[in-house]
Structure of Glutathione transport system permease protein GsiD:
Amino acid sequence: MEYIFLKRFFKNRLALIGSIFLILFILIALFAPILSTYNRDSIDLSNIESQPNINHILGTDELGRDIFTRLLYGGRVSLGVAISATALQLIIGVTLGCISGYYGKWVDNIIMRIVDTVMCFPFFVIAISIAALIGPSVWNVILLIGLLQWTGVARIIRAEILSLKQSEFIEAARAIGLSNSEIIIKHLLPNTLSPVIVNATLSVAQGILMEAGLSFLGLGVRQPQPSWGNILSAAQSMRVLQYEWWLWIPAGLLVFLSVLSINFVGDGLRDALDPKMKI
């Protein structure tokens, strides 16, 4: 089974390219202190908004900080926020989806009405309102994304559980006296991993975009801690857009490439895990 999965995945060239880029982004974020010779927050007021040169390969910002260094450290924050928020989504969505699909009846009705209610609200409208009240920070962004975006995985898990719980192997598990929690954890959850894995990869990409959007608006990660989103906030100035491309194009390109890479990987995983696909 593992051989078939890997063979299918490696046949997808876009998924391979996405994996290479994604691994590269993770590595440069992890080894940021080694790859850069500058301190993340070191200010040089004599070298403000300088163009890319030998000393600063991507130039400096409005405080003379090295853009390349801040992009490396910003990758830690942007990727970390996206992965942490996705983990929170999975914990909430998988738990509620399992309970809803397995127990059904009034339990299912209550949970699904909660899901429908949460899905009715536009993410950015609610997120901006809450962020304005509780203040911008890394942890608040993770909580906002995780608590507002778990509904999709909950619906996926519920649908999978509903189709599996009447299967013969589940009836056999009940017959030998396994408890409901044992049936869910040992038998149902392992059989729902494929759609969950695919959904998780796409949620990471979505999390990067959401963090970038909130930080761009000043309601996400606070300065001086860098993220790709708050580095992009420099593009709010027309002067920067026209004459100082190094302040926003590299950050925008990293967001674009990371999201595209994750989507390629997600598509590759979906095809590789699909039993109907040919080897």
Q: What stands out?
A: The mean pLDDT is 86. The two ends are 11 Å apart (CA to CA).
